[in-house]
Amino acid sequence: MKFGIAIRNMGPQSNRTTIRTCVRIAEQAGFDALFVSDHLCIPPDQTEGSGGRYLDVLATLAFIAGATEKIRLGVSVLVVPYRPAVLTAKQVATIQELSGERMILGIGVGWMKPEFDALGVEFRRRGAITDETLNVLHHLFGADVPGAYNGKLVKFPSFVFQPRPKRPTIWIGGNGAAAMTRAVKFGDGWHPMLPATELKAKVEELHAGALAAGRAVPEIIVRRGLKLDDTAAARTKVAAEQEAGATYFILDLGRYPDEQSFGKSVETFMAKVAS
To answer: Rounded to two decimals, what is the model's pTM?
Structure first.
């Protein structure tokens, strides 16, 4: 099992010093990747824990890319309906290029309707927009001069798509049938938020779908918090996730107060849980 770790890009801890220190701690500790989370327009009644302060995930990943050397960089997950498809592809390609092809692109449809309202995006069409954006990403990363694209929601003429690094790994977030279908069709991994007790049957279903479609078995990613003051229980919980079919575990330390607390938790996890 591979291990990633979530980095706060929200709240007062989302400052350049704390982020830079935490990502370097994570890299030195040996995590496979680090992950930031996506919100753009937090409504006033949803600010607990962040104060409404969220850094844009793609801009934050660009900053993190410059502060690290080898660790992979991920979004868990990018709400793609919030952004124009072609612009998203260009931003992703730029981060992938400048990071040395270290990006993991987790993708989701979103859930917070007030954010959609603030951005002028129809909430009911978020699934269709996500599918269209995934099509566009595959189309543009497929050629230096991709042909014209004529989708249901997005249309554009042929243009030069440079730089065109290797397409980043794509993980599809979401629990339902639509997300699983996207994972088989577009993704390299599936990133649900299901408890381990429900995960195993869904993983078996996903594996069957991938086999029927002639696709490789996707990575199965879970993101969990752990009580690191009870390392035996934490180890048991990680083992249960692996038994249920998870192949990738993202450690979420929640609202850690500072880089010192982050570093202490990282040390405990890597020495007593992940080892």
So the answer is: 0.97
Q: What is the pLDDT of residue 192?
A: 98
CATH 3.40.190.10 fits 2-272, yes or no: no
Residue-range domain boundaries for the chain: 2-272
Task: For the chain, give the secondary structure using H, E and C.
Answer: CEEEEECCCECCCCCHHHHHHHHHHHHHHCCCEEEECCCCCCCHHHCCCCCCCECCHHHHHHHHHHHCCCCEEEEEEEEHHHCCHHHHHHHHHHHHHHCCCCEEEEEECCCCHHHHHHHCCCHHHHHHHHHHHHHHHHHHCCCCCCCCEECCCCEECCCCCCCCCCCCEEEEECCCHHHHHHHHHHCCEEECCCCHHHHHHHHHHHHHHHHHCCCCCCEEEEEECCCCCCHHHHHHHHHHHHHCCCCEEEECCCCCCCHHHHHHHHHHHHHHCCC
